[in-house]
Description:
By secondary structure, the protein is mainly alpha-helical. The protein is built from 24 helices and 13 strands.
Amino acid sequence: ENLAQCPFRGTRVGGAMGKSPQLDDWWPNRLQVELLHQEQPVANPLSDENYKEAFNKIDLQELKKDIKAMLVDSKDWWPADYNNYGPQMIRMAWHSAGTYRIADGRGGAGQALQRFGPINSWWDNGNIDKSRRLLWPIKQKYGASLSWADLIVLTGNCALEIMNFPTFGFGGGRRDAWEPDRSTYWGPEFWNGKPFKESKVGEYYDGHPEEMVTQNLRWKGEPSDPNRDLENPLAATHQALIYVNPEGPGGNGEPKDSAMAIRESFKRMAMNDEETVALIAGGHAFGKSHGMASADKIGPAPEAAPMQAMGMGWQNSEGTGFGKYTMTNGIEGSWTPDPTSWDNNYLINLFKFEWEKTESPAGAIQWTPKDPNAPKTPDAHEEGKMNDLMMMTSDIALKVDPAYNEICQKFLNDFEYFTNAFSKAWYKLTHRDMGPKDRYLGPEVPEEDLIWQDPVPKRDFDLIEEAEITSLKQNILDSGLSVSALVSAAWSSAAIYRDSDKRGGANGARIALEPQNNWDLNRPDELNKVLSTLRSIKDDFNGNQSGNKRVSLADLVVLGGCAAIEKASKDGGFDVNVPFTPGRTDAIAEQTDVESFDWLKPVSDGFKNYHNDKVGYNIPAERIFLDRAQLLTLNAPEWTVLTAGLRVLDQNFDHSKHGVFTDRPGTLSTDFFKVLLSMDYEWVPQNDREMLFDIRDRETGNIKYTATRCDLIFGSNAQLRNIAEVYGADDGKERFIKDFVKAWDKVMMLDRYDVKDD
Length: 758
Ligand code: HEM
């Protein structure tokens, strides 16, 4: 009877905050606009800290000394293999970085998302919870001055160094996340927190019933079928794995199939064949795999573990559960006779011996040398005991694949070359998602620029000031370029930025280089006219300077946008000053990796009503639009004002009229909202696809406008509609201009790590 009064009375369905069913359970297709509002400063207890200053105060050598001492200080609660935590820390750092995928730039080591679900509980990250817990005393000592993300990568470097491997460099500057990331799609399978071996069969959501789907990588028919297809944008072939299954695709034990999966998967992570071989052969020079207990002895992953586990998972009930009983992946053994020092024995033995398929104590497929006289490797815990060498199916893949084999031969013959290749590839792996080099902190940042860093030249000229900015804006407007063309050039150059890996943006003026200058969504003909006019304005201006003041093309592209928006706003009755921060420089083609830049091209872009049907996306366009807004770090009001503004400024990639709800395109007005919110119209899909809509006058039945899903979402989604109402109201006009200009400037400045703090 008292129970009835308790607000959390524990009814059948839970009855407490956050328990299902919630909004998304009832309406799984609603657009989750709230995904734009993750990572709020309120969730970050360190939001008042300047990380750059704090990190720069650390004595990096002292910190590295602390880490290196920890690496050889074995603790009884998790005794180190070979009395050296180095190998397990390399795996931790690699798994932290290895979630990166180039298609959307998400994943990677940048925010230490490994600390949160789902990643902290992926089967592939088994026992990495122990590695991080071992690091806690270091984290505790340095506190706010050292992010987990930096500590994890730096520890990987220290581990390599104590085992005599020369690292290429280290840049700090990674900012930790403070909550799980809900915006990243990791794959279609349901994963229930049980070991992968138990959960992989039959417990996933299978969106493609006609195909064999045990993984993100799917085949029609046999595993070696060339129709295999790894779903975009994923890089891992199985949800809850970092890349590929070590036992071959679907655990089939086929090295050839494994090679195909590795190639596809590493390509998605922006690694070529040589980098791939360097990473795998380099990484597996160290440490061992763990499979001394069967999977049914292993408890739930961290997110599902009981309270008393205090955030750790995979409690192992075999023996002590650690040391010689350790069970992580299921495969057992080491690749080399000396797993704690850098040498070429991994490749030497892989090629010198024939390997045969065997089974680990945990029942996993692995490979053992056929030759009984092959070298042995010392047991990680029992003094004097020697074990057989081990290879995984994914290691044998390097031998059976002709292209990988050739690279292995090169590495075998030239250990120094191999060392250098692994060193560079490790640096790329762990820094790939950091963005411009301006973000890198500390004394170990290499001088050398690398092509994957999308380098821009250092500024070697003085900045233009107010008077020059004003006259340049006038010159641009006087040149006869239209508002629409100028805005399109500026927006196109800045808005391919993505915060996931901090690539893209206006700096470097890569809008004037291949491939961006020819992307169909950038209106290439019009764009190249704008660029040639701006170039001549630039040349005139720079040629007339007696001092060292210069303006770059990159700056002029952005300034052209500012001038155009000021004009468009004035035409609508409001005088505004659009902020402008000079200092961008112009990159050259040699500094631009065309293939890597092509990944930045949106497959669909709601800001320009660009919807590429050929890609065959089954995802509604507005969902990809939301994704783009999230990559631009926009909040819902910013997303709304920018879209509305771009529509009335005639920014559709093909100058189509979809969503251009105005009779005065080129004027910055709230007309978009007026039509969107009006009950004078009805909206009628043009066909079953419900991509394009006619907007009819209810009275006359005449088609007044047309629109796409990416226009109407601002009127149909409850959260966006409420925002639209603010700007569509009679007092919303000035607010709209102000908010549009602010959001515009934010986008123009997204990549300016040369002048802003993260
Ligand atoms: C260990 C798979 C690539 C570094 C392991 C383990 C597996 C595995 C199953 C054993 C985990 C355990 O039971 O403890 C793979 C696969 C790869 C790959 C399938 C790609 C095809 C890499 C790369 C690196 C790396 C690129 C680093 C550059 C390591 C290290 C260990 C390890 C150092 C030993 C960890 C320890 O001693 O505790 N790998 N790996 N691996 N891996 Fe990889």
